[in-house]
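Journal club prep — side note

Before the paper discussion, L.F. wants everyone to see what a predicted structure for a comparable chain looks like in token form. Sequence:
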Amino acid sequence: MDVWAGLEEVAWAELEHAYGSAGDVPGCLRGLRDERREVREGAQWALYGNLFHQGSRYPASAAAIPFLIRLLADRGQADRAWILIYVAHLVTGGLSLSEDPWMCDGERLCLGREVVAWEGEEQGEQGSRAEARDWLTCYRAAEAGIGSYLEAAVDGPTEVRVAALYLLACFWTRRERILPVLRARLASGERAPGARLALLFALGRLGAGAEPEIRARLSDPDWLVRLVAAAGQFWTGERGGTGVLPGEVGEEVVRALVEVLSAVTEGEGLEVPGDLPFLRGPGEAAAGLLLRLPPESLQAARGALRGALPGCRMFAAVPVVRALLAADFPAGLSAEPLTPAQRQTLRALAGHPDLWMVGNLGEDFRAHGLPFNREQVTAMLGEAIAVNVWRQDLQMASLYLDSFHDVQRALELAIGLLPAQAGAPEVWQLLGRALMEGAEWSAALQERAMAALDAEAQARWSAAAEEEGEAVAALLHALALAPGDGALWGALAVIRAGQDHPDAALAFGRAADLGFQRSVARQNQALVLFDNGRASAAISVLEREVEQHPEDENCWYHLGLLRCKIGDWERSMDAISRAILLDPGRADAWYTRACASRACASSRGHPKRSATPSASAALSSASSSAPRSVWSFAEPSKMRVRSAMEASSSCPSRAPRARS
């Protein structure tokens, strides 16, 4: 199939997107096909900015969807998960466990929580309703790919299955076709944790949340499963996206959401399996769902909400704050004295370091009769509230670093905090991150930073900076202040792995022990050990990991890969087979199993041939899964799994890349 057939026949220059004429869209679409990752990422950035600008969609948005669907049909297409999620955003405007879509499916016009029957274009010409025409054309265009989405949801690699299920959750009008496939997949036992959660999310969004198979998961041992199952109980009304009436949600749903908030407060067992497009933050999601309940139901959760609030930064705190205001000030601020519960909530709000920077909350405070001003709220309480105001500045520095990409300004703000907060590891960590990103370490800034250290710390800094650089020196000083911080160990490990430092494996192991991105950190620990010639230690690390976490497909894969590289062919095939059982669409696993199978046959004295039958079957599966993405690994976010295949010349031969 010619992916680009008809592309030049579309009158792109006459269509509009966020910046006017859509004449640049064909080039952006072609960029998704490029072998170079940087080119594809540039095209992705442009498509989000042009066709999905801050949630808005345009006439050109729907015109691009047929070509995106064709790209998905090629199982060797790179970044298929990104394409699926992007189409989902074009259809819904954004969708999560607690956020409702802004979309039109021809039956319903969904304006967030407000859902009304679609009556055609005469429904209104102002605001969001006027945009509904473009929403509907996007929905109609995306409907044509449901067959491809279903295939990907059942047969693709884990990240593709997750993304496909997320997209399928959008198609309420096609639920009769979609639900039987998803029910069958649930009954067959989806093994990958992330895909299992995505399956529950899609079933719930399509109105199946009240079915016994999903309701039973409200008592699942996994708090994430309980969260997604609880979310599904809000969408079981006759009109699907409208949800049930709040009073119909049982106590077990409230209890499940409170348990999630308690887990957030305690900080235990909070590892989320991979990137889930429908889950931004567990506390944020649970609070957003609780907001749908009447005040009397919310009051049972307010203690958990107060407990979770300190762990929610900036915009993640918004649904938690809104839920607390709805629980304790449902009718606004009365003339009566504050109740004990109201005082507790106001103390929690006044003591939060950065929610007062979120201007969107001003309207919420005023709607409940409260001033959106920390000092005025503190005055209402008539007592002193301890506030770490410096954390506002730290949060602002983080915004400059992560959102505005102004690393120099982030560094300057961090150093400005040192005179008063030299003992705060978070400040030194941010300083180190800014230096990692390339901020200029001028003599003046260095002098100001050194002034915050005593003589002994200055000596340690100088020694570390001379050997490994200023960024590592900053992280080591932060670790001296907070040796139990897993994120700090993870950041140090990433730098040291890039420098081939002998202690990189130790740092990855410490991060995993402390629960920071446990699976990725543990795999990195093993791969670094292997690169350093310690194959037995590397394999032992992964053997312990799969014993403790038998559903971790990535650890099984890397265990099989390392066994293959040392010539332990049969045990390699055993581990790789477990990875394939968990993720049947994983091309690199199929290929590694083919290598191990062929080598095993050769070692038994079989005559030389192109491949044994089992190797041929594995190679065929690798080819049909994703030939272009063989040996591709997760993108570097906080940490990424290093490719042992690329790091050592003793690996099996790589699978050939498919030609474009």
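L.F.'s comment for the group: DSSP finds 34 helices and five strands in the chain. Keep this in mind when we get to the figures.
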